[in-house]
Amino acid sequence: MIHSMRQSTLETLGLGSVLEIFRNGRLPVDAGKLVNRVFGEPGKRGSLVVSGANGIVGAGKVMQLGSRLEPYGVRVVGLDFPDAPDGIGKQYPGLVRAFGPEGAARIMTNVVRMSYDGKNLPAELEGFRPRYLLEAIPEILDIKKAHYDLFRKAFPGIEIRSVTSGFPSAELGVGIAHPAFPHEINKVWEIVESEPSPITQLHWALGMIPIPVSDHWSFVLDVQFCGLTLAGTRYHHATNMPFWKIDKYLRQLVGPNPFRAHDAIGAAGANFLTWSCLHHLSQRYGALFEPTPELVEHKDSGQNWYPLDHFRPLVDWRLDGNEAEEELRGWILGSLIQMTSLTLHEQRGHLAHVNAIGELCAQFRRGILAVIRDLGPDSAINAVGSYHRLHPEAAEKAWYPAVFEGMEGHDWQQLYVNAEHDGTTGVITISRESYNADVDRELNRAIDWLRAEGIANVIVTGDFHLSTQMVGADTSEFFPALADASEGARVAGTWSKTARRLNDDFEVSVGFINGKRCLGGMLELMMHCHYLVAANGTTLGMPEVTLPVVPGMEGCHWPFRKAGSEHWPKLLNLLLSGRSIKAEDAAAWLIDHAGTLDESLKVVWSLATGGDSGVARRKVEAGALKGVPTEVGGLPAAGGPATDAARKAIMGSIQGSCGATLAEALEVQTRHSAEFMTTPECRKGRVGAEYARTVVK
Ligand SMILES: NC(=O)c1ccc[n+]([C@@H]2O[C@H](COP(=O)([O-])OP(=O)(O)OC[C@H]3O[C@@H](n4cnc5c(N)ncnc54)[C@H](O)[C@@H]3O)[C@@H](O)[C@H]2O)c1
User: Fold this and answer.
1) How many angstroms is it from 79 CA to the middle of ligand 1?
2) Which end of the chain is more exposed for a tag (fewer CB within 10 A), N or C?
3) pLDDT tens digits, 410-451
4) Measured at the alpha carbon of residue 598, what is the angle toward residues 592 and 600, in degrees to the nearest 5?
5) What DSSP character marks residue 427?
6) What is the biggest distance separating any 2 CA atoms in the chain, rounded to whole angstroms?
7) What is the pTM of this model?
8) Does the beta carbon of 78 sit less than 6 angstroms from any atom of ligand 1?
């Protein structure tokens, strides 16, 4: 029996819990077997058809799915009208960048392009044995339905999924796989099905992120993203502030700049899709979603939201005073919170999903539920009240304040970190790629919960679903630290203390890294586990020097305390060059074991359950270290004074914290990290630039 703080998101895909992955020593499903189920056995293998293959979605998905299915010998047929502009061809340079010229040519050789008139399917199609149709044709209900009829008549039993932006599955009569922009690289698909199908599980097994959502008009992403766009146009309507300036405030308030995004996607198509989602939502939920005249005008004309750069007025627009700021918050945050209340009331998705979708697909700095959780129920409800004073019609429908009552429960409290256990062994999963204050608090709660449940052995890992890599600290957390060293010390000190709990609070802790990479703060966190295991091919690194910042989660001394002095030059090189290495080159000095995925899963389980893994535990030296070199050979040229300064500061932190006892070192490295953040080199670097771009008005 597995107990968990809340349902693992993997379970929503019918793939079981994360703990079972370790217990079984393998992933819950196998891509090859699923390919056989969906497309047929080799020899009788059928094909994937993408209709609308030259469109924005179709061309992207031909690339994304084509590159993943080619190794399995699944042909991809791209179907479109004869006069459709060559959307697939436009994607080719990107494919070359990702796979090299030979790889790109191989993938494209596997793609067959066909034209037809929309009414009669090409005769040759039958030879490709279509098994799965991904429909990506225009957002017009009748046209989509006629298209399915055509395919079903020709190929009874074919599986069909629509990429529709907003039509429910019940209207279309097919399942939905709604993808997020940019389509060739974004891995998220919102899925509507009665139960998780082999197609959805195949998407997962091929490295994508399917997210089940309920069958309502428009899906979670579009309620948030189109909703935010609408809120921006309403604010424009009320104040006449230009859209580009509203974007700046939206970026500061929540993260996205929706007007620029519409222009980047292609205003003509994107304006229509946004309008279409909102129009259908407003028919059911009233004024909350009613498109403004400006939105209708942009839908009709297809015009961009941003004026050309040289037409931007020199006179800046500013919000004058608290009242104006309050009004902006009311229009934007208030309406977003009300829309979220509808999403929750209708149970449109797992809370971790509803929260993650905005971050993964719409550039929300923090998911909307994390934002609302910070406000707390009263402030959230008050923000909607402010909005209703500005827009009273919206109060008439689709407002469910009661959904915020359950905020103290694990579903709300564990949006990014979950914990599971089987009575003896625990698993902590982190679903956010970058570490921030939310993750930090949730990780502490997960540790508290496992301890309260009497669990002494724990595995710490990604969630095998939403997080496909661990990229490091969320640098937006450092913004306040640029001006105030005590803020930097607070962040570094708090996070380091959390990381130490992985060492101090369990008898055995095992970190497991798979996916693309584990870098910076996330690697520092994971190295606090008694054992660190990584799957071959995973990239590990400490890129702080390139930002530049000084590692503040004990990366400057912890790994030195665990490695023999013969390995110290390699650690220095890692920290001072910022270059990454592969897991298989890191065993015995940075991590404890690297192996194939299945083998490392077994090693992790064996370590966590006291089995015979053959991997020895490395001790953390608690005394001051002597003889850590002050010079490093083989570093690439610094290339600028900022890197020089960062290298000096990192070396200072290494010497200071390694030269201290373990007990003192936390404070020493915290100080070094915090002090560097207030220097001109850091403020002029990536963190400072990001701060100027997103926060400074
Ligand atoms: N644009 C986005 O970012 C986005 C995001 C998510 C979902 N969607 C959805 O994707 C679908 C397509 O949108 P798009 O933005 O890619 O549109 P698009 O206009 O770029 O592409 C549509 C393509 O379909 C082709 N087409 C039209 N009728 C056809 C038919 N009967 N058979 C085969 N091909 C046909 C067109 O020639 C065109 O190449 C819509 O349902 C939309 O809601 C779009």
Assistant:
1) 11
2) N
3) 999 999 999 999 999 999 999 999 999 999 999 999 999 999
4) 5
5) E
6) 79
7) 0.96
8) no
